[in-house]
From TrEMBL:
PANTHER family: MEMBRANE-ASSOCIATED PROTEIN VIPP1, CHLOROPLASTIC (PTHR31088), PHAGE SHOCK PROTEIN A (PTHR31088:SF6)
Protein name: Phage shock protein A
Pfam families named among the record's database cross-references: PspA_IM30
Family: Belongs to the PspA/Vipp/IM30 family.
Biased composition (Basic and acidic residues): 134-148, 163-181
Biological source species: Ornithinibacillus halotolerans
InterPro entries: PspA_VIPP1
Region (Disordered) location: 134-199
Amino acid sequence: MFKFFKRVKTVVSSELNAMLDKAEDPVKMLDQFLRDMGEDIREAEAAVAKQIANEKILKRKAEDAQAMVEKRQSQAEKAILAGEDDLARRALQEKNDYENQANLLQQSYEQAANDSQVLKSKLDEMKKEYQEMNLKKDSLKARAESAKTRTKINRSMSSIGGDESRRGFERMEEKVLRYEAEAETTEDLSTQSRTLDDEFRKLDSNVDDELAALKESLGKE
């Protein structure tokens, strides 16, 4: 009967921490522990119900046997009053047989009632432990998720500024500097080209102005 409590004792014992250390995913293991405990509780409930039913049957049989004791006692008394000693003797014999049965059944009933009480107490203890483990599971799951998140963030932060990231950043910086140098060189060449053309256009403009002024002075407009 007590085999149903075996796994529960394992879960709530110090072995829990060792099992969690070996587990790849503590959250999944905690869920599995609770599923096992729930199954144990259902089996224990069925066992308790069966024991209580057996207790009730024994009680009823003991009461029936005691009722027959009283019945045969009354019949023996009637037989004696009627002068039927032989009939009275037979009634008393059966009365004694039922009395023995009643005593045995009463003892069995009392033992069954005691067993039922013990099992019900154990079942209540299991349910209490299950509730405590369920609450603890929620706390442990939250802590596990928090630890995973912190680990992920710490790993991400440790990779920032690392050799690979730094080298990649430096390559991009060099490429940007090269782009800027190329842009400045192109701009200088373009500026130089535009300056030379501007000077020639300025020269052409001065000649035209001078020609116009000359014509004006000669009245050749």
